[in-house]
């Protein structure tokens, strides 16, 4: 499902290029559920942005579902993402002026008669326990409910790959547990591959496969580098 080879990404900070990711080789098989943990600033969100094609790698290859992303134009990557990848971003990103139902409907890329669309959204809302909340605005929903809307919005087109960035980030532990369970349950029932970035070790431990980004990324953060090299300046180094 996902293949990464010789991937490098750096950002310009304070007038110089700082390496963030250097991943020689990494893959995720179809249907796997994988959690990635790692220190703040270690490049986890950047990695998801690269896999989704929102960001471009400086060099190397990323293939999703057999499609090398570097072969696509920006418009091609957008179309590929819409068809292939569901992305649950940090902090939900629901549109505040639209109801829960409208937020989901907006993401539906395929043409279907309104009746079928309505039935499909109804069934998704019911699956996540929000059947009586479809007409509510995000501000009228709890944070856990908003996250569930964000998850079904990402899944309504049945993408083969679901990416989620800190899906339990600002939730209390009980709600977070429910979201983790929902993500894993949906992955089994829908058959998609699931890749989650999280600081929540409780959530990560529920995943069949859990890795620290530093298991695959050769770039080490400043704090780790300073401990091992005695540097006092705040800079990232490639070990
Ligand atoms: N567009 C950008 N321009 C410059 N630097 C960036 C940009 N995006 C991210 N960075 C830097 O890249 C590093 C990795 O950021 P990233 O958000 O991927 O980390 P993270 O592991 O997801 O962190 P956290 O766990 O805190 O969310 C950080 O030092 C960040 O400041």
What's the order of the H and E elements?
EEEHEEHEHHHEHEHEHEHE
Assess the beta-strand content as a share of residues. Answer: 25-35%
- The percent of residues in helical segments reads 25-40%
Q: Strand pairing plus helix content: what structural class?
A: alpha/beta
Main sheet attributes: strand count, strand direction, barrel closure: 5 strands, parallel
Uncertain segments? 223-239
What overall geometry do the principal axes of the alpha carbons give?
globular
Placed side by side, the strands forming the largest sheet appear as: 6-7-8-3-9
Number of DSSP strands? 11
List ligands, each type once.
adenosine-5'-triphosphate
Description of the structure:
This protein is α/β, with parallel strands linked by helices and 239 residues long. It contains 9 helices and 11 strands. The protein has a 5-stranded parallel β-sheet, with helices on both faces. It has a 4-stranded antiparallel β-sheet with strand order 2-1-4-5, covered by helices on one side. A two-stranded antiparallel sheet has the order 10-11. A hairpin with a 2-residue loop joins strand 1 (2-13) and strand 2 (16-28). Helix 3 (100-106) packs parallel to helix 5 (143-155) and helix 5 (143-155) runs parallel beside helix 6. The longest helix has 18 residues, at 173-190. The two termini are 29 Å apart. The model is unreliable at 223-239 (pLDDT under 50). Bound molecules: adenosine-5'-triphosphate (ATP). Adenosine-5'-triphosphate (ATP) binds next to strand 1 and helix 1.
